[in-house]
Amino acid sequence: MKIIVITGQTATGKTNYAAELAKKHHGELINADSRQIYKKLDIITGKDYPPGIRIHLYDIVNPNEYFSSFDYVQRALPLIKKMLARDTTPVIGGGTYLYIKHLLYNVETENIPPDWQLRKELENKTVSELQSILTSINNLAIQQLNNSERNNPQRLIRKIEIAKVRSMPINPTLTITLPRKLGEHNLNIEFIGLRFNDKKILKAKIIARVEDRLKSGAIDEVKKLLAAGYTENDPGLKTIGYQQLIKHLKGDLSKEQAIKQWIFKELQYAKRQYTFMKKDPNLVWKTV
Q: Does domain 2-110+175-196+273-287 have CATH number 3.40.50.1970?
C-alpha cells in the first residue's frame, strides 16, 4: 500500500502534479493547503484542481472559523484509512507544511485539543499582548519562534494553548509515524517537495499568478466577502492577498501598493516554506 505526499513552495505546480499522480495511481486527493480549507475563498487561494479527480478537505469551514493542524489531522486520518481499505491511493497535496508535519510525525502538540474558551478570551488581544502572555507562561517557547510566528496571532494563541497544558516546549522528532497512527504495516510513503531552482523564475511565476487572479476577479471576491459580514480579523481572511486587498478597499493602500505588497508577501512566504521544509530529512526534492 502506498501514500503519496506532495508539498513545496507556492506556485510550483503542486496542484497539477498531485492530480497527475492521483490519476496514475488510482488515487484521490486530500488537500493540505490551509487557505483552500475555507469556503468562499476561491480566486485568491487558487482553487484550480482539475475536474474528474475526487478531492477531500476542500471547502470545509467558513472564513470566520478557526482550523488548526490538530483539526486537520483529526479529519485526514479517517479519510486515509478509508482509502487504503478500498485500495485507493491517498495523494496528499498542499504547501501547508505544518499540516503535513503533524500528520506524518508523532508531534505531541496534535494531542492537545483546541481550548475554545481560551481562544475566545484571546481572540481580541493584540500581537504584543499575546507575546506577553506566552512569555509569562513559557519564556523559552516564545524564544523558539521565528519572526513570522511571533507576529502571527493564530500561531501565538495556539502556542499559549499548548504552553498552558505543558510546561516545556515540544521538540518532535522527524521519524515518520503515520503507519503506526493508521495501524497499517508495509505502508510505502512517497514524500516529494517541489521547489524553484531560480529565484527569478519564482518571482516571475508569483507576479504572473497575482496578475491572473486580479483579472479573474480577486477584488470583487473580497468585496463580496466583506459584504457578507466577514472581516479582516476572521481566520480565513488573515492570509496573503486578502489582507492587502482589504486594506486597498478600506482606503489604506492604493491598488498599486496593495498589489506590490501582495507579491512581496508571496515571495516571503515561498522563502519561509523552503526554510522550514528543507530541515525535513525525509523530503525528496524536485526542482522546477
A: no
